Amino acid sequence: MQLLSILIDVVGPVFLVAFVGYLWARRGAPFDPMFVALLVTGVGTPSFVIESLSNGGPKLASLGVIALASLLCHGISLGCAYAFTRAMGESTTVYVPSLTFPNTGNMGLPLGLFAFGEAGLALSVGYYAMASLLQFTVGQAIAAKEVNPGALLRMPLIWAILVGVLLTVTGTHLPAVASRALHILGGLMVPLMLLSLGYSLARLNISSLKRGMIFSLARLFGGFAIGWLVSWGLGLDGLARGVVVAQSSMPSAVYNYMFAERFGNRPEEVAGIVVLSTLLSIVLLPLFLASVM
Questions:
Q1: Which of 144, 173, 196, 207 sits at a 20 to 30 Å CA gap from 16?
Q2: Domains of the chain, earliest start first
Q3: How far apart are CA 250 and CA 272, in angstroms?
């Protein structure tokens, strides 16, 4: 019964809203995924971060631990992904990012909200912030075969975190009008991310079913195991452990496909992993979440 409840109450809303985005794409209705991505990463998420930290959200120490857990999960995933890909005799440039970087944005944040409430969403943002930092530096460097440190300075989320930390440390509270405006803008984050996920999945095709299935299962089960390992190593329990395990268990991020497309790294193969891992997560996520709820 618990699995059915998780499937209906937690995973169900995520995929229902994403399905709206999927249907929108199948109708050929206007939708600019790049604009939506910029709106979410440049306005919605930064607004949520500042508003949450300035209004007595999670303690900085708690967010720091979650960010550290995210760093460790990604670091272990990167090492395991490299070893697994080499053992499979496949290209590390093509497959390592897909195994390393989960969808902690489009899927992870909504799931954090539905599974663990507002407190879970706030901690999930801490995990997502570190994941974004790593994806747009290490992930992009793997795909492009070159390092671009300037990418960090162009991330609004980094500046939002700095502003939020400054407000928290100094005990400064935003004026009510500013706080309410940020709350409204932060509300864009979850629905737009899910609509964008569904729209993106509708435009991707599976190239190799067998290979895509192998790498998709490795991403999901590997991420789940690593999430538990890091949680145990850091002594996390309760909400913090649930967030770390859930976020680490997410399917492959859509940005892996975008980088593969941009740098010519067999994007059709990466698209297959993104689609299959997302579809498989409908069945596997309730099992993963049941272990921490």
A1: 207
A2: 2-290 (1.20.1530.20)
A3: 15
